[in-house]
């Protein structure tokens, strides 16, 4: 199973090293100070001076080229006696959120011929997902072959037990003092920001690399900061921050004041358009040395006759038509550089509204470790052009907050999809032998935002015309079928030596009603507010921790306010906590929505009864498996306590998967048969190792999908309730177009 990088791989590594030196990666002024961390609760940000970077990058480039012959000799010596691979390549195409029931529905309508052909050639199975059924958990299980209690990721957010404030589950950000050690004294000079991946265990591509198998890993979630490994490249995915250090902060500029609630995840600015049709304002960036947010000016000139707008940022210009995105434009700040796209959302005689995407880290001058090696993001930018680097690049919050409309969101999503296609073509071409995985998020994001159009009675549709986007998800699936044909043509497995798989991390279901578990815990006496308070704002603003036994934050579970773990814990571990968990579990499973008469929770699980790994003790004590149609409410996710337990979900974000995992399995296709009717997402890591002759570690809970099935997954069988029937999808009300229109 020995794979040396192909000539093309070695060539771009050496070229990238030289490009890094020549371009001076960060290109920040020599006088700039390191920027402080900003947790909102996204990851932080740091920049370095260009003079030091220039010296370092030249040294790095020289070292990479100089040691290449030595590494090749060592590799040749170490390769002797190793097992032989069973295949030349294994390619895994990730379609985040692709749903088996939707696939079956659209296949029955004749829209999925290429997926059906792949099914006949090899296999198709629903793919058992992780518990909780949420992307960071599932993709972490994909990478490591273990469950959440062993890789330590249970949600996007967790709470800091020292102060109950939110923290990103996947990444730790610390600001540490810098000093010069002279031996007899340390001289302080500023601070540095350190990022650390909190995912435990190890990804299978690290094990492949140790056995000289090349891996190309593109945008797999929970790979930030990019971790080093032998023999491969990686571009980070979900949880890469924007340049402000958040998980995505858009900017919205309008000549008219905007009414309603404050934005979540973005900034609003009031602007003026001059008589000459010019708008001037500033983009907000990361904090500078003085701890204040830095600004970058921009100008827009509107040509009424041509209906075009010309955007200018620091001498760079881009002219686009009304409701067209600009290309990526460079956004320079002192010590850092980002990229963003501009879009004119509204333009009439009186007013204009301008949307600006979150300022992404510039992959050509990365201010944070978004790839491995560092030169890889630069290589992609040089050869393929600029591209989105933000972990959640499709701006769902801008649509949720209605600063953009559905048309703008779809245009943005498909632009990002095309960028990802170029990256896929590149790694398929470059990786002649080894492992390839590329994850596409478009399928997930569009289903989140357009699922309401599958349900005409969804609360978010009240008073709106739903016909325009009625077939958006149908068209999405049809386009993915066309895309599959393109991928298979590129893979071109004529000799049968490539294993080709398509999978998703979870499926989808309707999200009609939000449940504020904190409000329910208050009503049941488990969460207590300060005297006189009936509700609480975000992040447990009015919670009395001295009397609170349980609380929730994020999207997946309930924490016990435990002595010895939480700062103000009052529940003793042992029999007292076990009794409390059982009591809450029973009441929660009996929770009925008064508006519908339905139970909201299919099954609440006590974490330690389904997960036995070392990190289960840090997880929520109870995991909430909702019924279809229900999920944690938006304010519950941010630690608020609302007046009502149940509320309608009126957001554009109308589809979800944070429910009982039996309701939202993913999908799995392969170009050859597999050895089980119930593949699990944890099976992919051992399968990849097996295909390249690498021993599967005993700690992995999955099994190879080929050959003899040597172990069963250590999965919960959920004996207390039967497996729910698939969701009934509404029938198509109109005859599908032969070729769905593309946005």
TrEMBL record:
From the record, give the transmembrane residue ranges. Answer: 42-70
Region: Disordered; residue ranges are: 710-743
Keywords noted in UniProt = Membrane, Transmembrane, Transmembrane helix
Q: Does the keyword Transcription regulation apply?
A: no
Mark out the compositionally biased spans (Basic and acidic residues): 710-726
Please give the name of this protein: Type I phosphodiesterase / nucleotide pyrophosphatase
Which species does the entry assign this protein to?
Answer: Rohdeia mirabilis
